[in-house]
Amino acid sequence: MALTSLVVCADRNAVQVLGQILEELTIGVEHCADLSAAASRLAAQHFDAVVVDCKDQSAAIEFIATVRKLPINKATLIIGLVDGREQVRDIFGQGANFIVYKPVSVERAAGSLRAARGLMAREKRMKLRVSLHSPASIAYGTAENVPATLLDLSEDGLAIQSERRLPLRCKVYFQFNLPGGKSAVRLSGDVVWQDSSGRVGIRFVDVPQTSRRTLSEWIKGSLTRLATAERAAPTVAPHAPAEPVATRLAGLGLSTSSSNRRVQSRLACRLSADVFRLGEGVPNRCTLSDISTGGCYVETPAPFPAQTVVNLVVRTRDLKLRVRGTVQVTHPGFGMGVQFSLKTADERDQVEQLIACQPSEDTLA
């Protein structure tokens, strides 16, 4: 699944360096020297990333805002090239995802572009994933006909909610009916992750041709219906009470509840961390089992009460992240959900880099 980028910059040296790095990251590169030509190009074709020179800050900000309004590229990753830190807040505020400082060099740009590539790949996969809430029957090991619930589905994997913890890396056999489908889908896959809440990510291994065709046709049809419903949503009268999205799409058999939207946006992980109550210096060793740019789930046998303000410290081989957050939900004996309080562009950038560095097998839900 090829990734594509558009570099909008008139500096030949910068374009050469960026093109070299992007090609090494197996990202296709196109180049536009001016913003107006780039805007026309983006109106006609989707790109996974846009790198834009912010030398003329007001023009760059207007360009970024234009990109965010284009249906075909509204979720595109935007990387700004800036001269100094004074520009960063404004560029991030308009919707940029990453920053590269000028003069552009391999040393300055490689880390940000590598992290951006991880997010680009995940975003591309998530666009082809459909959230739903449908019963399924699974079998594994000596267990037969174990009930489960499908949470989301793609052509190469799915996520389920299971009442039982599955053996790590085991093979799972599925049987389920897709909403509106006439025949059962039968396939098998490997467990690649699971968390303390019972969510399990499966990567397909053996999919019969008939089931693969059924999956492909249903996913394409569902994405088309979702897009149609989304386009029709603004037609509600301005002063009429808004009909819930879940109600409008109930006939599709798709789940659009806030909880499932959150599940889609979070990345399963296994990260060791220390959590501190605000103002205390005693570390509590714990494990992060999922993370997003908005928060994380902390596995700990002694979670803090809701609304407790905490500091989280996560260390990996490549970075150390220290971020403040507030406990939103507590599950005694299991863990707690924490909402991040990201105050600076640097903190946001660090969280995104941490997410991008997680193994790709953990992106199935």
Describe this structure in words.
The chain has helices at residues 12-24, 35-44, 57-69, 88-93, 106-127, 209-232, 245-248, 258-265, 345-356, and strands at residues 3-8, 27-32, 49-53, 77-82, 98-101, 130-140, 143-153, 157-162, 171-176, 185-194, 199-206, 267-277, 284-291, 295-299, 309-315, 320-331, 335-340. The strands form three sheets. The chain has a six-stranded antiparallel barrel with strand order 6-7-8-11-10-9. It is of the alpha+beta class and 365 residues long. The chain has nine helices and 17 strands. Helix 2 packs parallel to helix 3. It has three domains: 3-127, Rossmann fold, CATH 3.40.50; 130-257, Beta Barrel (Thrombin, subunit H); 266-363, Thrombin, subunit H (Beta Barrel), CATH 2.40.10. It is globular, with a radius of gyration of 22 Å. It starts with a strand and ends in a 9-residue tail after the last helix.
